[in-house]
Amino acid sequence: MPVRISAETIMGISWKGIFVTATDTGVGKTYVSALIARELAEKGVNVGVMKPVFSGGAKSGDAVILKKAARAKDELGLINPVCLKYPLAPYVSAKLEKKIINLRDILRAYAELRKRHEFMIAEGIGGVLVPLKLNYFVADLIKDLGLPALIVTRPGLGTINHSLMTVSILETRGVKIAGFVFNGRRHSGLAEKTNPKTISELSGYPVLAEIPFDRG
């Protein structure tokens, strides 16, 4: 069954946009970002997308997915200004490639996309403490872009710890938090049934959507 994340809910978060982050890698940031972009585009919103940093190939597949979902016409170089070869933390991949990640390039690309679009969706890489540079992490980029964070998390056992740690790191940096999306629910065990409500109660932030597992 298709899952929709309310366009009204997302647009109500901030006049500028959202930054989709997660408790870990492989949790479903791209999937959730694409769902939101598609929903907004279908409602007639001029939505822009961005994958500031990608590691793991010559071309960012994530950026292509986001661009298609948003029906955007922006250049891939703007959508994904930093593309690294190795599927590692960007700081490590850049060191192996003997490259330096230029934060100004990212901020310039975002500023240009911001001019072109009514609403922006930026997607992170891994979790909030993934290093982009020495002593500079994904959480710092979220802060510098000035966007509220939407946290994608798993529904199963262990997610309370990971979710609350993510909240703590973002709050320490003064990042606004829009809420949680629970992605990929395969089972209906006690943990999956109780975790969303528990995390919302303990963190003080809402659960905006629960998305079931879809093999497609």
Question: Could you explain how this protein is built, in words?
Answer:
- By secondary structure, the chain is α/β, with parallel strands linked by helices.
- Helices cover 42% and strands 21% of the residues.
- The chain has 9 helices and 10 strands.
- It has helices at 7-11, 29-42, 61-70, 76-79, 90-97, 103-116, 138-145, 159-172, 190-203, and strands at residues 17-22, 47-50, 53-55, 82-84, 119-123, 131-133, 136-137, 149-153, 177-185, 207-212.
- The strands form 3 sheets. It has a 6-stranded parallel β-sheet with strand order 2-5-1-8-9-10, with helices on both faces. A two-stranded parallel sheet has the order 3-4. A two-stranded antiparallel sheet has the order 6-7.
- Strand 9, helix 9 (190-203) and strand 10 (207-212) form a beta-alpha-beta unit.
- Helix 8 (159-172) runs parallel beside helix 9 (190-203).
- The longest helix is centred in the N-terminal third of the chain and has 14 residues, at 29-42.
- It is globular and about 45 Å long.
- The model has no long low-confidence stretch (mean pLDDT 91).
Can I get a quick summary?
42% of the residues lie in helices and 21% in strands.
Measured as a percent range, the helix fraction is 40-55%
Uncertain segments: none
Number of alpha- plus pi-helical segments? 9
- List the strand order in the largest sheet: 2-5-1-8-9-10
Average pLDDT? 91
Structural class: alpha/beta
- End-to-end Cα distance, whole Å, is 11 Å
Percentage of residues in strands: 15-25%
Write down the overall geometry.
globular
